[in-house]
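Weekly puzzle thread! Below is a chain. First person to post its structure in token form gets bragging rights.
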Amino acid sequence: MTFPEFDKFRDQLIADFKFVGDSKGKEYAHGEDRFANFNRGAERAKTSRLMVAQIYRDKHMDSIASFITDRKTYSGENIRGRYIDAINYLILELGMITEEDEEVLATIKTAIHELECPQTTGYANGWLACNLAEGHTGPHISRNKQTGKDLYSWPQAPQATNRRNFPPFRFLV
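Winning reply:
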């Protein structure tokens, strides 16, 4: 296969896995949450949604391995479809990891805020209370006490009359 032939093949494959992923995603998710079917499966199986996605992907990987060994398929789905599904599961898994990492990052940022912000007034029922009402307009610069490097620049807070104007930050341990 020449480079131009491969580029054409790859571009068509990308279009195919986008189409399949979008159509199956809507069918399986039943709503706005792209990972809803994995969340439901995880709840039923008492495991993580990432593990559910891995199990679904492994079914396709087993079929691909069988094809590589035997050079034939044993079901009505062709091998291209198995590869497309496996690619889509890998993308979904990376999306879940990214979403979870963003949640972890938000938790870390909240912890840094708690440690560095001179306006922090403590916790109320597990919620971090930063007294934004008393002239606290940001931005926060949290610094690593050992290296002196900035860890995070908290977004500038709007003017407020009381803390109720702001969503609380949850610190999860």
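Puzzle host: Confirmed. Bonus trivia for everyone else. The two ends are 53 Å apart (CA to CA).
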